[in-house]
Specification:
Number of domains: 2
Structural class: alpha/beta
Shape: globular
Radius of gyration: 20 Å
Strand content: 25-35%
CATH class of the largest domain: Alpha Beta
CATH superfamily of the largest domain: Ribonuclease Z/Hydroxyacylglutathione hydrolase-like
Order of helices and strands: EEEEEEHEEEEEEHEHEHEHEHEEHEHE
Length: about 325
């Protein structure tokens, strides 16, 4: 295990706090888990006790159903609580609905775990909240100067100039809802259909009061009847639509290339890019940066001569 300041330990199973006897986004079952958001690489079933926001818990219930047997403690943004004597506060991370940064205060030191986060505007989730801290534990998914995420409306506007059906591959939780809302705003004349795997999560968002605009359940017959139709599908079934010769097949990702065969990439990311990450670090005032969930080598090089000390946890 690697020490993260004097409060946390990092291993392949995630972050663990000995003083509070809890884990953060653990990759294995544990007695007490603080969950930042509902994506499968951060939220798993099988824990004894889970602290999370209500939207995160509801998205987990939709994904795991009867497998989710943990005792649940609802966390409200901005309201401190104690776990094993450690003061903990959740703040919005702007990644997906209910996503949280986790602030821990111990012996006068403030440790902030960002989870996955973005600062771009997104009407389908709570906006990112800047939090002062002494130690920042941050994701580094796109922590390289080559990454500068474009305006998603510009990306979709160009895409919708195509006058045939569109099949958009997108992650079922977060990105699919964001794209649905954006399409409603800038292409209201086009019907947006949603695959059944995604529609369950759409309903969780709408039950939480998020306006996704108009959307319809997927019907193959209806989809093929009108060239203005757009279909949003999860990655697990995206390849099944290769035979839709009339449809442009697009995969939504922040990466420059898609892991899935497609006609083109739709550049939309739910993570911070390089400039966003640098600004977040400056705003929070942290003296020590710990990187995980990505490659932090460019960040370490950037601050080598001046700035906060950077340690790579994933190495």
């Amino acid at each position: 295990m690697k020490p993260v300041g004097t409060l946390l330990l990092y291993s392949a199973n995630g972050l663990y706090c000995p003083a509070g006897d809890f884990s953060i986004d653990p990759s294995r079952k544990c007695p007490v888990a603080l969950i930042s958001h509902a994506h499968g690489d951060h939220a798993l079933p099988g824990h004894g006790l889970v602290y999370a926001t209500r939207p995160t818990w509801n998205l987990m219930k939709s994904r795991f159903k009867e497998k989710l047997t943990a005792d649940f403690r609802e966390v409200e943004f901005g309201r401190p609580f104690f776990v094993g004597g450690i003061s903990v506060t959740y703040f919005p991370a702007g990644h997906i609905l209910g996503s949280a940064q986790i602030l821990m205060v111990h012996e006068g030191q403030r440790y902030l775990y960002t989870g996955d986060f973005k600062v771009q505007h997104d009407p389908t989730c709570e906006p990112y909240h800047s939090v002062p801290c002494d130690h920042l534990i941050t994701e580094t998914t796109f922590a390289h100067p080559d990454f500068s995420h474009p305006d998603p409306l510009d990306e979709l506007r160009e895409l919708c100039e195509y006058d045939h059906q569109l099949v958009i591959g997108a992650y079922a939780v977060g990105k699919a809802q964001r794209i649905t809302r954006l399409l409603h705003e800038m292409a209201p004349h086009r019907r947006v259909m949603v695959h059944p795997i995604i529609s369950d999560y759409h309903k969780v968002y709408e039950d939480a009061g998020v306006n996704l605009g108009d959307w319809w359940p997927y019907s193959r017959k209806e989809f093929l009847q009108d060239p203005a139709n757009i279909l949003i599908v999860p990655p697990s079934v995206f390849s099944r639509f290769d035979r839709h010769d009339r449809a442009l097949k697009v995969f939504a990702t922040g990466w420059k290339r898609s892991y899935y065969r497609c006609d083109r990439v739709l550049s939309i990311s739910d993570h911070a890019d390089w400039n966003d990450l640098i600004k977040v670090i400056a705003d929070c005032g942290a003296k020590t940066i710990f990187t995980l969930h990505g490659d932090g080598t460019s960040l370490k090089s950037h601050y080598q001569l001046e700035g906060p000390h950077v340690e790579l946890l994933h190495v």
